Amino acid sequence: MIGYGGVQVKKFLLIVLAVMTISTVIGGKYHWNQKVSAVQTKVNVTEEKSDEGIVEESKSIESQKVEAEPDKDRLVKLDKVNFLPKELQPIFQKAIEEQRPVNLMITGSSSTSHKDGAWPQLLESKLLDTYGDSLIHVTIKEIGGKTSQQVVKESIYKKMVNMKPDILLLEPFLLYDNGEIRMSERLKNISKIIKSFKKANPDMTILIQPANPIYGAYYYTDEENDLERYAKQNNYTYLDHWKAWPDYNKSEIEDYLTEGNVPNDKGNETWAKYLKEYFVRDDEKE
User: Fold this and answer.
1) CATH classification at residue 134
2) Structural domain count of the chain
3) 277 C-beta neighbours (distance < 10 Å), count
4) Mind listing the pLDDT tens digit for each residue in 39-76?
5) Domain limit, last residue, from 27, 49, 81
6) What is the value of pTM for the model shown?
7) Are residues 181 and 43 in the same domain?
């Protein structure tokens, strides 16, 4: 028989064993929970980094797309430059690099009308259709009822000079000056006008063209030849659109002019067609 003291010892040992068992279970569970928590934290961090990586990658792709758009637009514009005459291509290439349009100014006498349907407006429409307003900007300035002498004396051209065009397409009052001013004086007036434009923009390109032909002209044709010679001597491009008109010695040309000897619809279309073919090169003709 186990005495009373032995029973007490046995109970005490059982209590100690129970306490140790519970402590072990609780400790193990706590340790397990810590490990699980650590693993979950690690997984969450990995997922967060992964998500961040996706976001960053997405942002990077968007950034590349934004950068690619200007490059694509630039390449499209450079491709369009190939349709221009070679002497104008460097001007447009420079403007593309500077991310701006080329400024073309068209000016002259009443033969260079700013009205709808006149050749400057027809040319502008063609240029915008071909190159777009982000590549070319056209300004039309008609100076009607003035001789070249009046244009210079009254400084009418000064406001236009301040616009600093990249290209000046000048019809220098040849017809309106006819019978009024000697050709030598006219050429001096033209030089003064061009000099002012060049001073404002030394890199400007000058394109010179005569006014429209008229029926039965005599001295006027000599003056046109003098203007062409002047342009070539000064390395200006001369646009001889008279080649596109009917022979000025034949009455047929009157069908292209108004009673005031400026282009009518037919004359404007003829003049515009010549200039369109200059500004928009046809590869098939090359």
Assistant:
1) 3.40.50.1110
2) 2
3) 15
4) 444 434 444 444 443 344 434 444 444 444 567 778 88
5) 81
6) 0.75
7) no
